[in-house]
Each structure stands twice: as structure tokens, then as C-alpha cells.
Amino acid sequence: MKKIVIIFLAIISILTFSLAVYYGFTHRRGVPVPAEEEERVALEAPFIDKEIDFSKEIDGSFWEELPGKKIKLLYQVMVLPWPKVITPEVTVKVFHNAGDIYFYFLWQDDTENKITGINKFSDACAAMFPLDEKTQTPTLMMGFLGRANIWHWKASRDKEYWQKPQEVEAYADFYYPFEDKETLVVSKEVVKSAVNDLISIRVGTVTPKETQDVQGRGFWNNGIWQVVMRRKLNAAEPHDDAGFVQGKKRLCAFAVWNGEKGDRGGRKSISDWVELVIK
Fold first, then answer.
1. ∠7-9-12 over CA atoms, to 5°?
2. For residue range 9-47, what is the model confidence (pLDDT) as tens digits?
3. Domains of the chain (ranges, CATH numbers)
């Protein structure tokens, strides 16, 4: 009887040890925490018989009455330690008049940054539209694994396009071998819009399109940025332009840059995918 008890205790000890080893191995990277998947935000774009005149200031009364969505933003993870949220949300509203589609952005920013220079960066916002039917949705980097059309508004570009200051920024191109009459060539991009219409295939491939079809304008007042972008409802180049078809849905995502906090390039606040519904 005593021998049976010893054997039984030995078996229990072995099983307990084995379970402890198994648990430690399977949870060596931490204990998994169940996370509920958030419901994707649906943003409607109704038909409204109206045109926006970009030569004037933004009509606050019109946009206040138009329903929209507050889109949650998360800061783009770059390196450890991960930074805190800089711009927690952006309000987005959309409508179309059967000819053009308009996107309205509103977010809080204590400072207006529209002059670039050494350690000076511009405030900005962007909308991204995947072009491939089979979109790889997990990656949101404004240049994800797949083709995308990106509309990138910058406060500095807006100032240059609409205010046309006497002093404009330029950069120098150094050529080798140097030419007698062209040692230092000063180059300047001709800005056709306050919004840069971009195409991306994957991370690090954001490139301006030859055709710049997106227009826009932004105003900062008392810690609030308001930006409106406009483009034809139908895609001029279906291969490279985001298309918007009445009665259909499409994915989009948004981003905001705070120049005062050093945001530029990949440093920005980004949203998850939003489902745009064209009414």
C-alpha cells in the first residue's frame, strides 16, 4: 500500500512539473490578454448641391451642420520609448455634389506651424485611399503594403500656394563635375496646389503624381485647424487615382502632423481604416 502511495505521489509530481514547464514555455513572452476588435467607423458622404469657393475662408456654419465622425488617432510607432499621443482625434466630414467630392478636417493644435527651416516643421494632414481590391489592411503607414493614393495637405505648401509670399524657400542642387556657369543651381518646385497628390506602392515609395488634381485650403484660428480638400468624384486615372462611386463603399485612413512637436515624414498621428460610404 505504501509503495502505491509513493508511486501515485511521484506521478502527480511529474504531471505538475510537466504542466508548469508547458505553461512557462507557452507564456514565455507574457500572458495573452483578450482584446475586443473595435467596430470599423463608417463615414457617410451625402449628396449636397453646393460648391466650395477656396478663395474665401471656410464657411463654419455650413460644416457645423454637416454630420461627420470623430476619428481616433494613434501616434505612429517609431522607436522605443514609444511617444505619447500628440493629436488624439480628427473630425472628418465628407460630401459630394455629383461632380466633386469634398473632405473636411478639423483638429486641435495649440500652435500654427507653416514655416519650415532648421528644426522647424509644418503642420499637415492627409487622406489615404487603397487602390488594390485585395488590400492588406494590417499596416497603416501612409505607404503600406499595397498601392495607395494619398492626398497630403501641408500648411507650408498652403501658404506658398495661396498667399504667394515674396520670399520663397528654395534648395540648392550641386552638380559634379561643376560647370563654369552653373556651380550652384537654385531650384524651386512650381506648386500647383496646397495638396500634394501622391502615389505609393509600399513603404518608402511615396511619389508625387504628374497630374495634381486635388485642391485644398486650410485655416488656423484659436488653436483649431480646418482644412478642406476637393477632387473630381470620378478618377481621371483609374490606375493611380482613388475612385468614388455613388452607392459603393471604400476604405480610407487619415493622418495628422504636428510641426511644433517635431512631426515630419513617418512621425505622425494615424487612424485605423475608416469605411467611406458614398450616398
1. 110
2. 667 777 776 766 666 666 655 555 554 556 789 999 999
3. 36-130+153-194+214-278 (2.60.40.1190)
Span 177-211, pLDDT tens digits = 444 454 444 555 678 899 999 998 866 678 888 88
Mean pLDDT lowest among 150-159, 180-189, 194-203, 232-241 = 180-189
Work out the burial of residue 132: count CB atoms within 10 Å of its CB; fewer than 13 is exposed, 13-18 middle, 19 or more buried.
exposed
pLDDT over 50 (residue 249): yes
Q: How confident is the model at residue 77 (pLDDT cuts 50, 70, 90)?
A: low
DSSP line for the chain = -HHHHHHHHHHHHHHHHHHHHHHHHHTTT------PPPPPEEEEE-B------TTS---HHHHHHS--EEEEEEEPP-SSSPPPPSS-EEEEEEEE-SSEEEEEEEEE-SS-----BTTB---EEEEEEE-SSS--TT--SSS-SS-EEEEEEEHHHHIIIII--SS---EEE--SSPBTTBSSEEE------SEEEEEESSTT--EE-SS---EEEEEEETTEEEEEEEEESS-SSTTTS----TT-EEEEEEEEE-GGGT-BTTBSEEE--EEEEE-
For residue 140, what pLDDT is reported? 53
Q: What is the predicted pLDDT for the residue at 228?
A: 98
Please name the residues in contact with 145: beta carbons below 8 A apart, sequence gap of 6 or more: 136, 139, 202, 203
Residue type, 89: E
Which amino acid makes up residue 212? Q
Angle CA(57)–CA(126)–CA(197) in degrees, nearest 5?
90
